Amino acid sequence: MSKKNHTLILRLSTTRFISAALAVVIAASPAVALADTFDQQINQLQGEVNQLSGPLQDVASRANSLQEAVYNLNAQIADLQKRIGQNQQKRDQLIISITKAEADIVARSKALSNTLKTMYVDSDVTNLEKVASSKSISDFVDKQEYLCRYP
Q1: Rounded distance, CA 68 to CA 61, Å?
Q2: Were 140 and a residue from 24, 37, 39, 134 both cysteine, which residue would form a disulfide, CB within 3.0 to 4.6 Å?
Q3: Contact 53, 12 (CB under 8 A)
Q4: How far apart are CA 43 and CA 38, in angstroms?
Q5: In Å, how far are 20, 37, 120 from 32, measured between CA atoms?
Q6: Tens digit of pLDDT for each residue in 106-124?
Q7: Do 144 and 127 meet the contact criterion of CB atoms below 8 Å apart?
Q8: Residues 147, 121 contacting (CB under 8 angstroms)
Q9: What is the DSSP letter of 136?
Q10: Does residue 38 contact residue 27 with C-beta atoms inside 8 Å?
């Protein structure tokens, strides 16, 4: 409970106590003149109580609406955390799949390299025939460079 709410409740309780005490004093007092003064004080205090009751109810209503907002935000946070966890699991699975695919690509690339090299080196084709069968001189140079780079 906030300090302001606590102060309002304390003030209402004090006011009610004073009102009751004044009522007892008025009933026990023989003087009629004092009764009018006490009635005025009681009316004044009752007015203060009525004035404080409205803001107290407003504060209580505001506290309820804020509590509801906190509940809704906590529900949204829980949902987002759940979705984050699910996405992290998917991410981890994708990383594993990518790692496996990269390893497979490397293995297949080496196998293809060896196969092409074997086909190219073991053939009985002369360099002149290789140049003539290439699409261009740069194609021939690329093939020769590949053979030198990946022995």
Answers
A1: 11
A2: 134
A3: yes
A4: 8
A5: 18, 9, 129
A6: 999 888 877 777 766 656 6
A7: no
A8: yes
A9: S
A10: no
pTM: 0.42
Q: What's the CA angle centered on 90, arms 84 and 96, to 5 degrees?
A: 135
Sign of the Cα pseudo-torsion (142, 145, 147, 151, in order): negative
Residues 6+ apart with CB under 8 A from 34: 26
> What tokens were used for 15?
């006011």
What angle, 0 to 180 degrees and rounded to 10, lies between the N-to-C axes of helices 3-28 and 32-122? 170
Residue 28 has pLDDT above 70, yes or no: no
Gyration radius of the chain over CA positions: 46
Q: Residue 78 has which token pair?
A: 């829980």
Length of the chain, in residues: 151
Per-residue pLDDT, 93 = 97
pLDDT value at residue 115: 77
Crossing angle of helices 32-122 and 137-149, in 10° steps, is 100
